[in-house]
């Protein structure tokens, strides 16, 4: 118990010191400190423009480097001289002796946190579930899930878009892929949202306790689920991965738990934000909504422009594996470079009138919302599929819906999206029973 107290005190001191540094730098006007602090600014885009004024690479008073340059972000994400930062040791969420050995954190113990060749091996394990052919097969199941949730809110009553629809669909889709029983979806979604809020690190003792509790529940649940699938294989991703091998090396249970958890932490929140933002931007831009209603087949364009205009993940970080010079600045070995994707996707050198939401934009797919290079989001195809189907079916059911109150945004640092969007339904089109057959 004494050791636990000492470790807890040290962690608390480190977190407090870090927050003090952030707050101090923010008070001096450092835009990077304001962007990367405890709470995401309600409107981060003016801060991106402040950083852009300093050139392609900006050195923050925090000692880290940042870029909002589309070209630099894309180049760094593909540059083998940069890799994923090394997680802190001991982990910031560790509270009890042995936590780091018995609790599996999906960010620190999965392909998201490692570099090639280990990253390549882990990615090859999950990639078959996200190929174009696999997604075509899954499309019908996604449509069924979307219809079932629309049926629950299609009685003409007002509803909250996030709570009643956009948070429900991705949770059900991932649960279906992994073979999670329906009664576990609420818990499943809670884990994903909790981990996503701290995907870029723990800042407070409250976050530390929350992450530790979630990891304890999640590790126990998925350990049991893996054993069940090992004893009685089923038609789902977990059974497909149990016993799988790459280059003659089997996947371990620890790796499997990390991969499953990664779908939660990195995939669930991202897709919820993507669907929510896509709907919100159409409702906030009537001319763009009319273009979509006139041609629902343009759903992919709406999704791509939503990804560019306000990406669901606003930044990612890389560490220099050797001394690297960028834009006349030396980034030393071990130095951190933050790619501010939200700013890069509004780079005026790439996108004309970048602060305008325009689904007819000619280079609409040049955004880097899903990163680039080796760590390009493996689940991006599934997220796009869910968003496109959700958009088409939602507006087919509620063509006259409108935002009926204030949109509340999440406060997570990296993941960005609405927490609540009140919707008023002027007229709803009833469910098509044949679609639920």
TrEMBL record:
Keyword presence, Ribonucleoprotein: no
InterPro entries assigned to the protein according to its UniProt record, in alphabetical order: Cyt_P450, Cyt_P450_B, Cyt_P450_CS, Cyt_P450_sf
One GO MF term attached to the UniProt entry: cholest-4-en-3-one 26-monooxygenase activity
Organism the protein comes from: Streptomyces bingchenggensis (strain BCW-1)
Taxonomic path: Bacteria, Bacillati, Actinomycetota, Actinomycetes, Kitasatosporales
Family label: Belongs to the cytochrome P450 family.
Keyword tags: Heme, Iron, Metal-binding, Monooxygenase, Oxidoreductase
Annotated PROSITE patterns: CYTOCHROME_P450
GO biological process assignments: cholesterol catabolic process
Protein name as catalogued: Cytochrome P450
